Amino acid sequence: MKRLVFPTFIVLLGLSVGSFAQSTRVSDSDISGGLKEALGNGVKFAIKTLGKQDGFLLNERVKIPLPKNLQKVEKALRIAGQGKSVDEFVVSMNRAAEKAVPVAIDVFVDSIKQMTFEDVRQILFSKDQDSATQFFRRTSEEKLREKFRPIVENATTQVGVTQKYKSMIGKYGFAAKFLGQDVTDIDGYVTQKALDGLFMYIADEERKIRKDPIRRTTSLLKKVFGILR
Hints:
The protein contains 11 helices and no strands. By secondary structure, the chain is mainly alpha-helical. It starts with 16 loop residues before the first helix and ends with a helix.
C-alpha cells in the first residue's frame, strides 16, 4: 500500500463564496490543493478506523448483522443450539469487511487526483453537508466494489460455517431467489455493507470539518486560511 502523508483534516469546506471571491493572494491551485489534502486525510482516517480488527465487529454503527431474512430464523437457530454457528457467521462477515477496507486508499487517492477545480468549487459551496462524500461515491463506488468483492469472497470462504452456508444456498437453486439477494449472495451483501460503512465515516469527517475551522497544520493550509478568515 502506498504511504500517504496528509495534514490534519481541516475546514476548507466551510468557506463562503464571498470570502473566496475576496481572495487575491491565494491561487486556484492552492485552494484546490488545500481541499484535496483535507479530503485525503479524512479518507485516511475512515480507512484506519474501519480497516482493522474489530473495526466493524465492535462498532455498532457499522457492524454487519445477518441479512434481514436470516434474522427471522436466528432465534430458532439459537434455540436449536446453533448459536455458536450464528455468531461465527456474523464474525466472518465483519472480518471480511475489515480486510477489504484498506485497499480503498489507492482508489480514493486516484479520485482526489482527478478532481477538477470545478469539482472543488461545487464541493466547497454546496449546501449539502456531505457533498464531498457524494463526489467520492459517484467516482469511486464501483471501483471499490470490484476491489472489495474478491477480498470478501476469499475471507468468507476460509470460514467453515460461512462456506457451508454458501454451499447450502447453492443447493436451493432457483428456489433460493425467493429468500432475497442479501441471503443468496452473502458476499455481495457484505461488500455493500462495507462500502456503506466506509462512506458513512467519510461523511462523518466531512461534517466535522464544516463545523470546526481550527486545524491548520501545513504551510499551504495556513496560507489558504490566513486570508480567508
